[in-house]
Structures are given as C-alpha cells and as structure tokens.
Design goal:
Layout lengths: L1 H20 L2 E2 L6 E2 L1 E5 L4 E4 L8 E5 L5 E8 L2 E5 L5 E5 L3 E2 L3 E4 L4 E4 L8 E5 L4 E7 L3 E6 L2 E6 L3 E2 L9
Antiparallel strand pairs: 1-2, 3-6, 3-9, 4-5, 6-7, 7-8, 10-13, 10-16, 11-12, 13-14, 14-15
Length: 165
C-alpha cells in the first residue's frame, strides 16, 4: 500500500505544480491575468474597491491610455498604469483595443522591423500609439497618421513574450 500512496502523492504534487505554472485566469471573464487593455473614455474614476460605494482615489484622464488588469470582481477590474498606480475601474470604461505608451524619447518608428530601414517618424516620450502586430522583438504602431515598427522593449502596454498577428 505504501508505494501506491507514494505514487498518488507524487501525481498530486505534479498536478499542483502544473496548475501553479499555468497562467492565471480571471474569475469573471476567464481571460489571462495580468492582461493589457485601454481606457475607453476620456475620464475614468479609479476607486479604492470594486463598487460605487468605495472612495474615488483619482481619475485617469487620457483616452486610450494602456492599463494592465490584475484582478476581476463582478463588473469591476483592478488596473494599474505604467507607474504602478491603480485601483478598481468599472469594466464599461475599458476597451480591448490595444494601445502602448512610448517609454523612450524620440523613439524611431521604422518602415519595417529592421533598424536598417528608413525612419518614418519619431515619437516623443509619453505618446500613446495604437498597437498592431508584434513579433518577438518588434511591434507595429500607428500614431498621428504615421505607421511603422518600434522595438518592443521601448513600449509599455505589451508583454515581452507577447506575439500578435
């Protein structure tokens, strides 16, 4: 009997290890956590807890600002911005349309995902750009009528390992 108990214990430990290494899923949406979204409205109240009775700690004021969802509760999503500031926002204020924040001043936007190609535009630090395709190291962006490729490491709002078609 002892060998069977040992095998069962080893199998249970393997199952727990596999479950722990799998990415976390939101209890409400079953979507991966953390994940990036954007602010749909030009203003969004950020509350201390997931209900209208909780105090408003601050207000996000940039439409399309990328935010990272870290938790879900009913119609509420706990989000954070690039500075780690956040709280609870009603899901109706969020969009699945992806945007990124430029983290390097005068970031070159290249014609293709290759620094040897022509520079299409330069984006200032803090600019919000719409996110398109992403490979292992480059992402396609559009901002103010310009479209091009930028190194993923210079962007906030996309995971380093994330690939997008």
């Amino acid at each position: 009997m002892k060998p069977i108990a040992t095998l069962l214990r080893a199998g249970l430990l393997a199952l727990v290890a596999t479950t722990a290494s799998a990415s976390e899923r939101g209890a409400v949406t079953n979507l991966p956590l953390p994940r990036f979204v954007s602010l749909k409205a030009s203003e969004g109240n950020v509350r201390r807890g997931p209900s209208l009775t909780h105090r408003i700690d601050w207000v996000f004021k940039r439409r399309d600002m990328p935010l990272e969802i870290t938790a879900e509760h009913g119609h509420w999503r706990r989000v954070r911005d690039r500075d780690g500031v956040g709280g609870w926002v009603h899901y109706s204020l969020l969009s699945g349309t992806r945007y990124v924040l430029i983290e390097q001043d005068m970031l070159a936007l290249y014609q293709r995902a290759d620094p040897a190609t022509p520079v299409v535009a330069r984006l200032e630090l803090g600019v919000i750009a719409r996110l398109g395709k992403c490979g292992p190291e480059w992402c396609r962006l559009s901002s103010s009528g310009y479209k091009g490729w930028a190194p993923k490491q210079s962007l906030w709002g996309v995971q380093p390992e994330e690939l997008r078609d």
